RNA sequence: GCGCGGUUAGCUCAGUUGGUAGAGCAACCCGUUUACACCGGGAAGGUCGGGGGUUCAAGUCCCUCACCGCGCACCA
């Protein structure tokens, strides 16, 4: 009897040892599996790219869930003999990482502008590297069977070439353009952000109504009203039928008399407020659109630091927050204030990362045109290229109801603003010389060219992830073998940010889909249902603490059983404790089997009696069932069935029955053979779910040829 | 406002094409029979959110209402 079996199963002693064994074997790499004859050269491939964790610290329970689900898929595929690649990497996460480091520097009393771009970037890179090391180390503790030999980083040299190549192609095709357009300016982070990076917060604010000539207008933002010289009403509004479109009126406003123009447009909601509003085209998406429609003048009121410009007269230079009440006071003195609603609730746009209040501005930025027809892609637009594969079922989203959400997002999609005024990230590959502009992979050779100061939205490089990691733009063997990837598994919160952008990039640059299946997992919540936030650094449950306490296999089962795609998971310590017992149950059952079968000649197993044949058949049926369910990604149900079968059929029935047979020496050989084959099969099918305890038992298994990680998945009908 | 998801045993949740409800944990009773007390045996527990419909048959399909959660849009 192996000494290890004399004590209860000890995950702590076992897990790191087992992971090292796997790493040493090289089986995480499909190339090694082929060299060693475990995978046939003509085998089908199964590939997954790891959604690269941000290098902003450490892994949380959400990452753990992702690693568990993907590791299960990968281990299963590998055991089925597929050419299996799980490719790791990390994401530089431009804004997220930069603002994290800025906050750290703040504590030292340093601002990034004090030390300059170069020095600051050094600090960020150091931080990113440390985070990377922590993350890789954690992923290993979690048992992820990733092919580390192919590891990538969204901001490394190879990925930079991919980014520049992608940018240039899109630029040459007219899909990337530079223009003055309405963008979301974050005065706190001092950068533009995309529509998707906005978080809306409900806030109670004052809602003022003022006299505006013969009209009354309402606003929550009096400080933007200096330049308002257009007053808009609905053409069908009977209250204002006396006024004509483009009619001029003179009126007294904040800083004296002005001339305003009446605009009649159907965008107005007659029922809201007084049914009349003035517009501020420079600082509102909707007003901008209206101004474009009627070719109205646009004036900037607020600068990029959130201060009022000279147009504000005596208020110029003031911060918005400071100016607001003073402006209201002045209007009141002039007798133009009608009322103040103190209980008005509106949604305030804030920046996801910095928390700053978004100030829409017209700015010169870089955009991706999502509506332009692309000749090289059958005159389809990027929008169409994103819609098509999902609509046609080439890309399957699990659970399928997210397809509707996806379509809805694309239909409302505006051009994607990709330039950012931050330092950390891929620099825009564009150079300027007076009025000339040059876009290229390399810096122009001649003198006097100055590169664009801005960097790219981090999702631009993430969008290339399925193929930039496989060597694109080079035509590599990896790219040919593993792209499109089999599954993209990630949280549903980045459906738009990432999944949509990957489809965009792959469809446009490669003319093929990036992945065949999208498996969306839910958010991991604490037992009380509260969100375990990733960006706030809230370590409600640290996956590593759980592993320390209960072992990896237990955590895995707790994350899989009862967790279906798209639904949130409440992580409950009781469950984890229960699955720790299960790992021990497997351990003890194995001890019994090994004890009872040590005299068994496993080269010629004895035949089974009728009763045992029936049990054997039952297991075969189970294997058939779960094999099908594995292929449909129904991991929750498979894990539950295996748990139940092992405990309540194998342990409670098969083992118990064998005791009597062996004791009485009636059909003892049949019972022993059944114990042996049952345990063997169960260890194999349990392995993707509980890799550590099964691999450890496998190492004690008589006559095992290789590691369990590369053992063949049992045949099924 | 538009859309999506949820509502099943005390708790957490499964339940694939419709065929008279399942698991884990908790609680209850019995048991220390040498793989395992990180255990075994037994019993209990649900008119599947409300209402209506289709069907021989509905947790499962359709309509409707309520509550919870989420996404998107608007907010002068």
Q: Summed up, what is this model?
A:
With 717 residues, the protein is α/β, with parallel strands linked by helices.
Question: How many distinct beta strands?
Answer: 25
Gyration radius, rounded = 32 Å
Major sheet characteristics? 4 strands, antiparallel
Mean pLDDT: 92
Structural class: alpha/beta
Which word captures the global form?
elongated
Q: Could you describe the 3D structure shown?
A:
The protein has 21 helices and 25 strands. The chain is an alpha/beta fold and 717 residues long. Helices cover 41% and strands 18% of the residues. A hairpin with a 4-residue loop joins strand 5 and strand 6. The radius of gyration is 32 Å and the shape is elongated. Mean pLDDT is 92; it is low at 534-539. The structure holds one RNA strand of 76 nucleotides.
